[in-house]
User: Which sequence fits this backbone?
């Protein structure tokens, strides 16, 4: 079984991080985005809580570029097809702990978690495998209306 996902534009301020970022990696990500002029991959986040599962450095680089929205691959984080390991892949981390870290603001240190998905062949792969390449121009992520309307996406209204 594959993890169901959908690609949507989400306001940066709605997304919640569960890990701190590494300053050097953030700077490298920012430079890379600036050099190429586009976002190569969307972020991955839980569709219910908007906790970022993959892409915290991209998210923070886009914040520094004063972007307002970002393409996000939304997934059902509670799916049994998603497993969270420690970076050394020796320990399973609770999804509830990941969500609590994000919602409470008490984030894990950088690169604590490694989100994996069960592929159709039964093997586990990093969640970035479902993100796909989008090569979305950076200039359009700063203008909310043109991004949402120009790409045929409808703004997602959240009520919490």
Assistant:
């Amino acid at each position: 079984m594959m993890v169901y996902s959908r690609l949507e534009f989400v306001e940066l301020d709605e997304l919640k991080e569960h890990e701190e970022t590494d300053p050097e990696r953030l700077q490298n990500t920012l430079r890379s985005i600036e050099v190429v002029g586009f976002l190569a991959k969307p972020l991955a986040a839980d569709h219910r809580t908007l906790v970022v599962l993959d892409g915290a450095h991209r998210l923070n680089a886009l914040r520094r570029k004063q972007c307002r929205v970002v393409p996000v691959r939304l997934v059902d984080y509670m799916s049994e097809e998603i497993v969270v390991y420690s970076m050394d892949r020796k320990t399973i981390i609770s999804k509830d702990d990941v969500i609590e870290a994000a919602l409470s603001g008490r984030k894990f240190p950088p690169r604590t978690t490694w989100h994996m998905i069960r592929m159709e062949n039964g093997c586990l792969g990093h969640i970035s495998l479902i993100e796909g390449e989008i090569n979305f121009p950076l200039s359009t992520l700063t203008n909310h209306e043109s991004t949402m309307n120009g790409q045929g996406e409808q703004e997602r209204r959240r009520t919490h």
The longest strand covers residues 5-11. The chain has one domain: 5-150. Confidence is low (pLDDT under 50) at residues 146-160. The domain at 5-150 is CATH 3.90.1530.10 (Conserved hypothetical protein from pyrococcus furiosus pfu- 392566-001, ParB domain).
